[in-house]
């Protein structure tokens, strides 16, 4: 199948150097500097599944202080408390509380059991290979939302893209019907980003923010700033 790239081509041609500079400055400051901050990027990605950006922010705010839903075990270790986590998600009213509790709780144990595995690629491992590898181990995210977490971890460096419904549509495709083209679309976006001199995630932020009639990302990303 031939990709419909006309809209994508027009978008990349429209990006201004001043936009790139402004977004780069902001997102470079937003790169998490601690394991705890990195873990919270994954929490945001989990809460972005099947919801609006408004509920994504609301849901994330409800669980971002994960010290409120973990318990101390023997030898000073901590594990998630399913009842506490479920209650936090339920109170946020973002839906799918059973699945979110299971997925986030399982990820909590896996992340803190091997933080490096989820924060950066292994030596010599490519971005897409890393994303594909860990996405198979993360229940509830898949390639798109795992990519979203990676984008937020490495906003000006990551060479993967969260291809959601909107980006599939830009290429004239349906995410549900054409999921097998994920890597093909991603490669095209990466290639165009490189040619335009913009990080793939920064380009995606610019595209998404324009769709929302916003000049920057802070209408939603402010929740990540604290």
Helix content: 55-70%
Mean pLDDT: 94
Form type = globular
Strand segment count: 2
**Low-confidence region ranges:** none
Largest sheet: 2 strands, antiparallel
Strand order of the largest sheet: 1-2
Provide a concise account of the structure shown.
This protein has helices at 6-14, 17-30, 35-47, 53-63, 82-92, 97-113, 115-119, 127-135, 142-153, 165-170, 182-196, 200-211, 218-221, and strands spanning 70-72, 78-80. It has 226 residues and is mainly α.
Structural notes for this entry:
The protein is mostly helical and 226 residues long. It is built from 13 helices and two strands; from the N terminus they run ααααββααααααααα. It has helices at 6-14, 17-30, 35-47, 53-63, 82-92, 97-113, 115-119, 127-135, 142-153, 165-170, 182-196, 200-211, 218-221, and strands at residues 70-72, 78-80. A two-stranded antiparallel ribbon has the order 1-2. Helix 1 packs parallel to helix 11 (182-196), helix 2 packs across helix 12 (200-211) and helix 3 packs antiparallel against helix 9. The model has no long low-confidence stretch (mean pLDDT 94).
Task: Sum up the structure in keywords.
globular; mainly alpha; 226 residues
Task: Produce the secondary structure layout.
Blueprint: H1 6-14, H2 17-30, H3 35-47, H4 53-63, E1 70-72, E2 78-80, H5 82-92, H6 97-113, H7 115-119, H8 127-135, H9 142-153, H10 165-170, H11 182-196, H12 200-211, H13 218-221
Helix pairs in contact: 1-11, 2-12, 3-4, 3-6, 3-9, 4-5, 5-6, 8-9
């Amino acid at each position: 199948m031939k990709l419909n790239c006309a809209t994508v081509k027009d978008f990349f041609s429209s990006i201004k150097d001043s936009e790139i500079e402004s977004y780069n400055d902001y997102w470079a400051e937003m790169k998490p500097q601690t394991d705890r901050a990195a873990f919270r990027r994954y929490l945001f990605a989990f809460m972005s599944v099947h919801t609006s950006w408004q509920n994504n922010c609301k849901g994330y705010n409800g669980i971002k202080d994960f010290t409120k839903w973990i318990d101390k075990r023997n030898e000073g270790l901590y594990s998630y408390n399913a009842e506490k986590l479920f209650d936090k998600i339920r109170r946020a009213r973002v839906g799918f509380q059973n699945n979110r509790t299971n997925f986030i709780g399982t990820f909590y144990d896996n992340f803190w059991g091997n933080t490096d595995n989820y924060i950066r690629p292994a030596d010599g491992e490519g971005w897409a290979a890393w994303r594909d590898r860990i996405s198979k181990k993360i229940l509830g995210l898949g390639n798109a939302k795992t990519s979203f977490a990676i984008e937020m971890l490495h906003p000006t460096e990551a060479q993967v893209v969260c291809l959601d419904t909107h980006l599939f549509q830009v290429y004239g495709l349906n995410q549900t019907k054409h999921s097998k083209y994920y890597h093909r679309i991603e490669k095209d976006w990466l290639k165009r980003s490189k040619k335009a001199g913009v990080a793939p995630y920064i380009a995606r932020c610019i595209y998404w923010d324009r769709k929302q009639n916003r000049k920057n990302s802070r209408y939603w990303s402010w929740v990540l700033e604290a």
